[in-house]
Amino acid sequence: MKLIGSYTSPYVRKISVILLEKGITFEFVNESPWHEESKVTEYNPLGKVPALVADGTTWFDSPIIAAWLEHQNPSPTLLPHDALTALQVRQLEALADGVCDAAAVIVREQMRPPEMQSADVLVRQRQKIQYGLDALERAANAGDVLNGSEINLADIATACAIGFLNFRRVAPNWCVDRPALVKLVEKMFQRESFARTVPPGTV
Q: Where would I find the GST N-terminal domain in this sequence (predicted)?
């Protein structure tokens, strides 16, 4: 089994954490979609990571890969057996991924020359991050689908999203007035799967 991706991608980290939590042996192929010589399109026509190659089949898009891994390797369970609750977990996963999407737009926008950066784009994406984190805080505070006694896919996705915010220093004050999220990420970052997937260069 091969996981194609970048060490700095939060979506790749999410899949790496799932693989480690499930004890699945895999080979990591470091491929950045932003390099001219990138081979990512050989695995995903959209040129995005992660992609997972297993038994001659390639799976791409992190929610799809996560669902496939849960189907193939149900232990430990990261999605509830109840279909409606599982959808709630997947929706929180999508919310966390959306926070990552907004942060990635900010990072790319800030790489442009200052005179070419769009203030409207930056404001819009920062609002998405704030609203997304507020919703995740409410869910983590409730503790029924997120931040419960057993970790699930939503917990992993949320911790990866906040790890990405920390890594890129996009929202340095994310923890202000969000104690439930702080509790969640502190718990998640102590797990071996997260310790082994810290992006290079992270302090």
A: 1-77
Where would I find the beta strands (DSSP E) of 10-108? Answer: 27-30, 51-54, 57-60
> How many Cβ atoms from other residues are within 10 Å of residue 198's Cβ?
15
Residue 63's domain spans which residues?
2-72
- What domain count does the chain have? 2
**Residues written for the chain:** 203
Amino acid at 131: Y
pLDDT in tens, 2-60: 999 999 999 999 999 999 999 999 999 999 888 878 899 999 999 999 999 999 999 99
The answer on 191 and 96 residing in a single domain is yes
Same domain (yes/no): 126, 159: yes
pLDDT tens sequence across 128-184:
999 999 999 999 999 999 999 999 999 999 999 999 999 999 999 999 999 999 999
Are 49 and 110 contained in the same domain? no
d(CA 140, CA 203) in angstroms, rounded, equals 26
Joined together, the tokens standing for residue 199 give 């992006």
Average pLDDT score over the chain: 96
* pTM: predicted TM-score of the whole model, two decimal places: 0.96
User: CA 62 to CA 68: how far, in whole Å?
Assistant: 10
**Are the C-beta atoms of residues 28 and 5 closer than 8 Å to each other?**
yes
